Automatic annotation (TrEMBL):
Keywords on record: Antimicrobial, Bacteriolytic enzyme, Hydrolase
Organism in which the protein naturally occurs: Peribacillus simplex
SUPFAM superfamilies cross-referenced by the UniProt entry: LysM domain
Alphabetical list of InterPro entries matching this protein: Glycosyl_Hydrolase_73 (IPR051056), LysM (IPR018392), LysM_dom_sf (IPR036779), MGlyc_endo_b_GlcNAc-like_dom (IPR002901)
Domain LysM: residue ranges: 127-171
Any Pfam family hit: LysM
Molecular function GO labels: amidase activity
The protein's name in its UniProt record: Peptidoglycan hydrolase
Superkingdom of the source species: Bacteria
C-alpha cells in the first residue's frame, strides 16, 4: 500500500502489482527504482517487480505466496497463515523478509487501526435450514436476515416457489 502510493504508482497502474511483490509473474515484470533498507539505512536500488494482468491476479499471487512459500523455502510464510492477530501476522511477514523498511509493521498497523480495517475480520458462517411445510423463501430471508436473491443464488434456485419439504437450503 505504501510502496504503490495507495494504488496510484507506476507499479500499481502499469504492473497491476498492488503489494510490491518482487520477481516476475509468468515471465512478466517491470523494473523500477525503489528504496530498500540495508542495516536500517535507506538505499536507492533498481528492483524487478512482478507484472500482473489484473489486480485480482496480484491478490491471488500474494495469497499463493503466503500459502505455498517460495521455491527455495516452502514454509517461509507458515506463521502468517491462520494468524488472527494482525500485528503478529505483520511481524511474520516482515521476519520472512517481505519488506525491508524497519517501520513496515508500525506503518501497516497504523493504517489498519486508523482505517478501522479490523471490522472486516468477522467471518460470516454459512447457515443452512431444512425446509418445513409452510416455509417460503421470502419468510426464510426475513427470518435469517438475508435476501430472496441471495438464497436463490446460493442454492441455484430457478423458481423461488419451488422449494420442497426436507430440502436443505443455505439461508445465510
Amino acid at each position: 500500500m505504501f510502496g504503490d502510493g495507495y494504488g496510484t504508482s507506476f507499479l500499481a497502474n502499469q504492473g497491476k502489482n498492488i503489494f510490491g511483490t518482487k520477481g516476475d509473474f509468468k515471465g512478466e515484470s517491470v523494473i523500477i527504482q525503489t528504496i530498500e533498507y540495508v542495516n536500517g539505512a535507506p538505499v536507492q536500488v533498481w528492483n524487478k517487480f512482478r507484472k500482473y494482468p489484473t489486480w485480482e491476479e496480484s491478490l491471488r499471487d500474494l495469497a499463493n505466496l503466503y500459502v505455498k512459500g517460495t521455491s527455495w523455502n516452502r514454509s517461509l510464510y507458515t506463521a502468517v497463515i491462520g494468524e488472527q492477530d494482525y500485528k503478529k501476522a505483520l511481524k511474520a511477514i516482515f521476519d520472512a523478509g517481505y519488506a525491508s523498511d524497519p517501520k513496515y509493521i508500525e506503518k501497516l498497523a497504523n493504517l489498519i487501526e486508523t482505517s478501522d480495517l479490523t471490522k472486516y475480520d468477522e467471518c460470516i458462517e454459512e447457515v443452512y435450514h431444512i425446509v418445513k411445510k409452510g416455509d417460503s423463501v421470502s419468510a426464510l430471508a426475513k427470518a435469517y436476515g438475508s435476501t430472496q436473491m441471495q438464497i436463490q443464488q446460493w442454492n441455484g434456485l430457478v423458481d423461488l416457489n419451488l422449494i420442497k419439504v426436507n430440502q436443505r437450503l443455505r439461508v445465510k
